[in-house]
Amino acid sequence: MRSFWFNKLSVIFGPRPPVSWLLLCLVSLLALIAVLGSSSSNAFDSVTPTPVPDIYLNYRRLKEQAAVDYLELRSLSLGASRQRELGLCGKERENYVPCYNVSANLLAGFKDGEEFDRHCEVLRDRNRCLVRSPKDYKSPLRWPAGRDVIWSGNVKITKDQFLSSGSMTKRLMLLEENQIAFHSEDGLIFDGVKDYSRQIAEMIGLGSDSDFLQAGVRTVLDIGCGFGSFGAHLVSLKLMAVCIAAYEATGSQVQLALERGLPAIIGSFISRQLPYPSLSFDMVHCAQCGIVWDKKDGILLIEVDRVLKPGGYFVLTSPSGKLHGTAVGKRKRNVLTPMEELTQEICWSLLAQQDETFIWQKTVDSDCYASRKQSAIPLCKEGHDVQSYYQPLVSCISGTSSKRWIPIQNRSAGSQLSASELEVHGVLPDNFFEDLRVWRSALKNYWSLLTPLIFSDHPKRPGNEDPLPPFNMIRNVMDMNAHYGGLNAAFLEEKKSVWVMNVVPIRARNTLPLILDQGFTGILHDWCEPFPTYPRTYDMLHANGLLSHLSSESCSAIDLFLEMDRMLRPEGWVVLSDKVGAIEMARMLATQIRWEARVIDLQNGSDQRLLVCQKQFIKK
Ligand SMILES: *[C@@H]1O[C@H](CO)[C@@H](O)[C@H](O)[C@H]1NC(C)=O
Ligand SMILES: *[C@@H]1O[C@H](CO)[C@@H](O)[C@H](O)[C@H]1NC(C)=O
Ligand SMILES: *[C@@H]1O[C@H](CO)[C@@H](O)[C@H](O)[C@H]1NC(C)=O
Q1: Closest ligand 2 atom to 405 CA
Q2: Would you say residue 181 lies in a domain?
Q3: Of all helices (H) and strands (E), which one includes residue 446?
Q4: Which residue of 199, 228, 245, 500 has the fewest CB atoms within a 10 Å radius of its CB?
Q5: Is the CB of 103 under 6 A from ligand 1?
């Protein structure tokens, strides 16, 4: 237990008598203020307008002052100098994504493509600085306008990348002065994406693509998503389509998709499993995604099978004859191509083939595997991928004995899980619905706090006036410790036009399967490591209890906050909810990384506090 938090917090119980004595006085003072302060009404339950007691503000200010004094006193007593604001990184770091330094990976001995994989263990740069925004960075347009038009100065892309006629989804891009426009919805330029989506629907036997949901297709993993136009179309059909693509230094598909307000994550099919449990997605889509599916004995295809739910679809679009060495279309009589052989072995059936598109369906019948030939790819041992966090790829079939083996066509309609579905996840309906109730009211409160006014000298008390909507667009939200996904559910109920990346920290209870089964997106993540995304890709970060959770781990809190700053768009928001000790610590760190920050006291006698922060738009 040599963790950062532990050291800081343990100071209170430190051995040196004079310091302890001073601290005891301060703690008493704080306690006294807390008692006096708690006599004013709850900051969160004042729905009916009541006059703001000035005394409340004074006490709060006094309390904050006392807390600051306490921290300064402590750092003095430790002989440490006052912590200063961190500086900005150099211009070369504007689009910095840690863990993907190819030259460093090569130096470390990774080869055969593994140098392009995520390697956080290689060379963690200890130079702590704030990733700066490009010179001509502008706040993105609000959703949905921002889906179709982005500022070209916000993303790293070369002129050649605009002009290269890549896949169908890439050709939909036009450059207008300092903007990039994607004409996907109105069909002004090409109607390719709509036609393509309709074609896929027809190939799996549906009347049109608006029937996807009814047919059990809610979540789609889109591998190598071009610039996100197919995903944008699926999102308009109320599907959760998440783009996954390898790290790219320029013209990144993931950076563009996120800039458009579409779910995306950096991830690659190289040598490790994706950070998802088995049986996660209803459809996996690859249109010219550059992966050779039948190489290495099909180990990459087996990974797709792992994350695909029973009855789910694998859609592959690739120019015929160019299906990387296999040519499913051009078969010799009675001789199976490697792709045909592989898909049979993993119990997929080829549903349809049209033009350059092939669709396979994973079996709904877990007995299918028993009826294969002896030499076929074996089944994995039970429970091997419970917490699959970048584990090496395996050549065995996962999930066949899981309680979550439920064909997508058999799922109950709507996003609300039934009691029996909750039981599969070991969750009691009472707990689940109580959690949702808590998040409904928490979201209303958060939303009313997200206004720059709360940082003014006369903070608006939440609930006193009609809550203002946030001045800035909020579209990409990350819940850094998502639990059951309650915040996501509350956002949906409130019909806010956001999507949530639900992150389940490793070593916390693995609720990711429950989150995904609600039709949300999410990912497992170790918060002692950088998150696989580009800088400035989230508008709001939320973390409930994460700091307390991390207090038992030996990673640095300042690095976590720097990483949050990297992910956050200028003028983006951070909402942290935690125990008072962790929040005071967070407040100090927030100052170091130049966030505006304010502690909100819930004043219901609990030791929970909120810290609402806004990243400044540092103009140079
Ligand atoms: C990547 O690694 C190389 C070699 O170790 C190093 O010189 C370079 O500064 C690193 N780049 C970044 C962006 O950290
Ligand atoms: C799925 O539904 C079909 C038809 O209603 C039923 O025959 C089958 O047993 C169900 N499968 C599972 C695993 O519940
Ligand atoms: C106080 O409010 C917070 C947030 O609504 C809640 O999580 C906590 O349980 C409450 N504490 C008590 C003692 O009621």
Answers
A1: 13
A2: no
A3: helix 429-449
A4: 199
A5: yes
Whether 410 lines ligand 2, by a CB cut-off of 6 Å, is yes
**Amino acid (1-letter code) at residue 222:** D
Pocket flag, ligand 1, residue 124 (CB < 6 Å): no
Count of the separate structural domains present in the chain:
3
Indicate the pairing of strand 538-544 with strand 476-479: parallel
Q: Distance, CA 607 to ligand 3 centroid (Å)?
A: 8
Strands (DSSP E) found in 300-457 = 308-317, 348-354, 357-362
Contact 63, 33 (CB under 8 A): yes
Ligand with the closest atom to the CA of 93: 1
* Atom 4 (ligand 3) nearest CA: 602
- Whole-angstrom Cα distance, residue 316 to residue 358? 5
Over residues 470-513, the pLDDT tens digits come to: 556 799 999 999 999 999 999 999 999 999 999 999 989 999 99
> What CATH number corresponds to the domain at position 435?
3.40.50.150
Contact 313, 305 (CB under 8 A): no
Element containing residue 600 per DSSP (H, E): strand 595-601
Same domain, 334 and 442: no
The answer to whether residue 570 sits within a structural domain is yes
Q: Is 564 helix (H, G, I), strand (E, B) or coil?
A: helix
- Same structural domain for residues 250 and 364? yes
Please state, in angstroms and rounded to a whole number, the distance separating the CA atoms of residues 239 and 620: 40
205: containing domain? 190-410
- Which amino acid is residue 457, in one-letter code? D
Query: Strand locations in 318-384, DSSP E?
Result: 348-354, 357-362
What is the dihedral sign for C-alpha 463, 468, 472, 475? positive
Whether the pLDDT of residue 466 is over 60: the answer is no
Tell me, what's the pLDDT at 605? 78
Question: Quick one: 7 and 54 in the same domain?
Answer: yes
The predicted-structure confidence for 511-520, as pLDDT tens digits, reads as follows 999 999 999 9
Q: Is residue 160 part of a domain?
A: no
d(CA 451, CA 467): 9
pLDDT per residue as tens digits for the range 388-446: 899 999 999 999 999 999 999 988 776 678 888 899 999 999 999 999 999 999 998 88
Question: Across the beta sheet with 521-525, what order do the strands follow?
Answer: 521-525, 499-505, 476-479, 538-544, 568-579, 608-615, 595-601
**With contact defined as beta carbons under 8 Å apart, do 558 and 10 qualify?**
no
Ligand 3 proximity of 344 Cβ (cutoff 6 Å): no
Q: Which of 391, 147, 427 is nearest to 274 (CA)?
A: 391
Give the pLDDT score at 79: 38
Q: Is residue 599 part of a domain?
A: yes
20, 103: one domain: no
Examine the domain organization and report whether 479 and 406 are in the same domain: no
- How many of the other CB atoms lie within 10 Å of CB of 379? 15
Q: For the ranges 121-125, 214-218, 255-259, 441-445, which has the lowest average pLDDT?
A: 121-125
Distance CA 346, CA 232 (A): 31
CA distance 484 to 258: 24
One domain for residues 327 and 207? yes
Same domain, 598 and 449: yes
Q: In which residue are the tokens 């119990």 written?
A: 347
Atom of ligand 3 nearest to the CA of 441: 5
pLDDT for position 57: 38
C-alpha span between 152 and 149 (Å, rounded): 9
User: Domain check: are 106 and 198 in the same one?
Assistant: no
